[in-house]
Structure formats: C-alpha cells, structure tokens
Amino acid sequence: MSDHSPGKLFIGGEWAEPAGGHYEVVDPATEEVVGLAPEASRAQAHEAAAAAKAAFPAWARTRPEERAAILDRTADIIQRDFPAHAEIARRESGATTSTARGMQVGVGIARFRRYARGALEPVEVAVAPQVNEAGPMGRAGVFGALAVRQPVGVVTCITSYNNPWANPAGKIAPALAMGNTVVVKPAPQDPLSVLRMAAALAEAGVPPGVVNVVTGSGAEAGEAAVDSRDVDMVSFTGSTAVGQRIAEVCGRGMKRQLMELGGKGAALVLEDADLGSAVAGIGTTFSFYSGQICTAPTRVLVHRSRYDELIGALAAYANALTVGDPADRATVVGPVISAAHRDRVEAYVELGRKEGARVVTGGARPAHLDRGFYVAPTLLADCTPDMRVVREEIFGPVVVVVPFDDEEEGVALANDSDYGLIDYVWSGDVARAFRIARRLRAGGVGVNTVGRNMEAPFGGFRKSGVGRDVGSYALHAYSETQAIVWPG
C-alpha cells in the first residue's frame, strides 16, 4: 500500500492534521462507516493554494519527460495496489464491484498513462508569416509567429462523487502534464480514494506543493480553494447550481474555468430505430452508477409509432436488473450515494405522479433490502415536455418518456432544455442520424450508441458547462495560449 496517513490532509508535500477534526464516510450499501475523512479549515485550503503557488515556477520549468515519468510511475503505483483501491472505491461510492474496478480505478490508471504521453505533446504551433509595410509600428518586414501553450498556474480541482478515481485523475493528470500545480477538493461523500491518489503521486516523486488535497464535509474548504488569490483556474464537475456559484467567484477574479455540469440527455428514438440497441443504451440509466451520471440518456423522445413497444421493452429491461449489494458480483444496480439523495430522487418520482406521469415500473424502495440507500429502476411514461421530471436533472435511475410525431418535433423537443451535455439518436438510417445530430444543441451526440471515444472533446452547451476536456483537449483546457512574434 502507498504510504499515507489516514485522516490527514496533504499540503505542501506533508500530511497535515485537519483543523476541524474528522467526519464519517458512509457506505451507501450498508450504512456503515467506511473511514474518517479530515475536515479542512478555510485557512488550510488557503495554505494549500499558497503551497501550490510556491511550487509552480519550478514545476512549470520541469522537463516534459520528467513530468511524464512521474505520471507513469503514479499509474504503476496505483496498479500495484489495485484490489485495495477498488475495494475502498466500492465501499465509499456504492459502485458495483465491476464498476469500481473497471470504470473507477481502471480508468483512473488509464488517465495517468494517457497524460504521461500528453506531457510530451508539442505545445508550439507555427503561425503563417505575415508581410508588414513600413509604418508607425516600424520598418517593413516579414514577421514570423508562434502560438505557444503555457500552463495556467494554480488549478483548483473540485471533483464529483460518482467517480472518485476517474474524475480526479482526469483533472490532475492533464493539469500536471501541462506544468500546472493543483489543489484538489474531493466530493465530501467519497474523499478517501483521492487521498490514496495523492499518496501514489507523492510516492511517484511529485515535488512538494505540486499536488495538495483538502477535504471537508461541507462547502467551507471548497469555497476557500476557489476564492484564494493564489488560484488561477477552477476545474469543477458537479451540479449546475454549484457551478454557477463558483463561476460568480471566478468572474470577480477573472479566473479561468472548466465546468462540467448537469445534463438531461435526450435520447431521440426514430421510427426506423433498432429498438433492442436503443433499449440497451437507455437502460444504462437504470444501472450505471444507479443513474448518477450527467451523460445518461434520461429523457427519451420516441416516435409515436414505436411508443408502446419501447415502453414495454424498457420496463422488461428494468425489471430484469438485479438490485442489491454492490459487493455481490450478480448485482447490476447498487445504491445511490446517500440517504438525502435517495429522498431527492424519490421526491421527483412522486412529483412525476402528481404531474400526471404513469409509473410503469419502480417508484418504490426495493422491498428485499432493509438497509442501504436504494432506489428501484423507475420508468415514467405519458410524460409531457413541460413536466419538471422532464426538464430537471434527477440524477438517479429514473427514465422519462415523451412521444413525438415527426422528425422536426423530435429535434425541437430535444433542444427544448436548459442543458446540452450529451444527446443520443437511434435510427436505422445512419446518414439521417448524423444529419439530426448536427442539429442538436449538445456538446456530444451518440449515434446508435452510448459509448464514448476517449479522445473526443467532452463538455456541454448552455447550463451543462464551459470548456472542453478529455484527450488532447484537456491539455488545451489547462493551458493559456501565448503569441511570440519576431521579424524575419
């Protein structure tokens, strides 16, 4: 196991006692305490940002090959302790065993590997020479130019609770690869994995102050990590409401932002769709992270001619899913993250009933589970576009279905949203699906798939976010572009 101090913050290369004591991290499946997480004060978050600022000049000048080697070693160290990491990730996030292993720790390792390579990507792009006539700016001449990507500085990374390995790795690794230093504030529900990640980075040889982690059960540490004068950029994954508050603070300080916020993904199922493919894709909302994922196709828009058939197939899919203990390898649907979030999801289902939606399946707590924060996969039919359950992000295993009569109406309904992260189109005519995809106001569109290309830009339109990351786009996100001009 990587050498680290449980229950301590990581500031300036040292494990520090938290000023505010500790709080309990709870297993969503058993309601038992997984461990104690440190409660950082505002002063400690500011201290972490100051340490990152002090470490920045030397780290920014470090050879790319050295940064790459540290990121590669980090991946090796995480891989070495893979079983223990997957176990703690499952226990603190409620993810199933396969998800904790493959999509959490496994993807976290892959991202450190990817940005070890990313550290070596060129940062200079030649600009075409320009001929200038003599004038007030000087003599005539041919002027060359370079566009050079430079690190932003100190980046505060505020991460989501649904993936305590892949999400932080997707921020920390590209930020470090570009020469930035970071202050990481994990989600309060599952910070233990991120502290393990910090320990792996320290063991890999990251210099003191380059990576700092402050945790807390409330907003105090995160707010301080955003408003610190030493912070140049904030990278946030979470709800749109919190993102808006962070953006207001960033705006006052002109801090750079990367915001990956909420979603209400439209799944447009046309009359010529392969219904089996559509059901399998939409059905992931019922199971993957128990619907706690912003990219989920939660808002199904289906051609009226296929409406009843799709409802029946989705209900059968949901009813066939095993809901239960995520430690059991037969489990497909685990709990949601907390009792408060379970209450929120259940309140939305009840709201849907009151708004006139028909609960086809689900809508009640699984009767066979007497503890844990479980929500049964729920399908709401006969929905209309004005319902709150159709317009607002529920962030749970709940799918709403709205019929449409023709392609134009379907596209209009898909675009009638405050969000625009990832939409989906299912059609047997791929050319038609691509044509429709170009009309959708979303940062990404899946054509006959919910799969992702992990080099493609990721981010949202409208209230789903600001900026793009993933692949080389993440390296661009954590950099500023500088122009260097000279006479030829």
List key phrases describing it.
alpha/beta; Aldehyde Dehydrogenase, Chain A, domain 1; Aldehyde Dehydrogenase, Chain A, domain 2; 2 domains; 6-stranded mixed β-sheet; 16 helices; 21% strand
Explain the overall architecture.
The protein is an alpha/beta fold. The chain folds into two domains: 9-261 and 464-487, Aldehyde Dehydrogenase, Chain A, domain 1; 266-454, 3-Layer(aba) Sandwich (Aldehyde Dehydrogenase, Chain A, domain 2), CATH 3.40.309.10. Helices cover 39% and strands 21% of the residues. It contains 16 helices and 20 strands. It has helices at 42-60, 64-80, 82-93, 97-118, 166-177, 192-204, 220-227, 240-253, 275-282, 284-287, 307-319, 339-355, 388-391, 407-415, 430-439, 472-477; strands at 9-11, 14-16, 22-26, 33-38, 124-132, 141-151, 154-158, 181-185, 211-213, 233-237, 256-260, 266-269, 299-303, 358-361, 378-381, 398-404, 422-426, 444-447, 465-466, 479-487. The strands form five sheets. It has a seven-stranded mixed β-sheet with strand order 14-15-16-13-12-17-18, sandwiched between helices. A six-stranded mixed β-sheet has the order 9-8-7-10-11-19, with helices on both faces. α1 packs across α7 (220-227), α2 (64-80) packs across α6 (192-204) and α3 (82-93) packs across α4. The mean pLDDT is 93.
